[in-house]
Amino acid sequence: QVQLVESGGGLVQAGGSLRLSCAASGRTFSSYGMAWFRQSPGKEREPVAAISWSGGNTYYADSVKCRFTISRDNAKNTVYLQMNSLRPEDTAVYYCAQRRNGLNDPSSYQYEYGYWGQGTQVTVSS
């Protein structure tokens, strides 16, 4: 049974930084791509960043490029999202997700992901 557990969310002032972590268990972590999605109140869930199983390929939403960095440590079964220069519009619940299949491209499509964490709240105050 796959489990994804996010941590690292919280309240931060605009311009600040946070690092989210997602610890995975239940499947061979290094064989599957991972991603972060987020959802704000009244909005649909949207992709933030994705990383291939090898870690060599990444995807970023335009809104977070040059501010957020996704990375993974396959030895620790963990994926990270380093968030810098945070803005109030980054406020959302952030979800970690694992791909259904083992393709080595960083997909931004939600249907590609079959396993989801419970989410962690990130609040950025102005």
Our estimate of the beta-strand percent is over 45%
Helicity range: under 10%
Shape: globular
What is the string of helix and strand elements?
Answer: EEEEEEEEEEE
Regions with pLDDT < 50 over 5+ consecutive residues? none
Query: What integer is the average pLDDT?
Result: 96
Tally of alpha and pi helices: 0
Structural class by SSE content: mainly beta
Gyration radius (Cα, Å) is 13 Å
First-residue to last-residue Cα separation = 40 Å
Q: What composes the largest sheet?
A: 7 strands, mixed
Question: How many runs of DSSP E, i.e. beta strands?
Answer: 11
Q: Summed up, what is this model?
A:
By secondary structure, this protein is an all-beta fold. It has strands at 3-7, 10-13, 18-25, 34-39, 46-51, 58-60, 68-73, 78-83, 92-99, 113-116, 120-125. A hairpin with a 4-residue loop joins strand 7 and strand 8.
Structure description:
By secondary structure, the protein is mainly β. It is 0% helix and 49% strand. The protein contains no helices and eleven strands. It has strands spanning 3-7, 10-13, 18-25, 34-39, 46-51, 58-60, 68-73, 78-83, 92-99, 113-116, 120-125. The strands form two sheets. Strands 2, 4, 5, 6, 9, 10 and 11 form a seven-stranded mixed sheet that branches. A four-stranded antiparallel sheet has the order 1-3-8-7, with no helix packed on it. The model has no long low-confidence stretch (mean pLDDT 96).
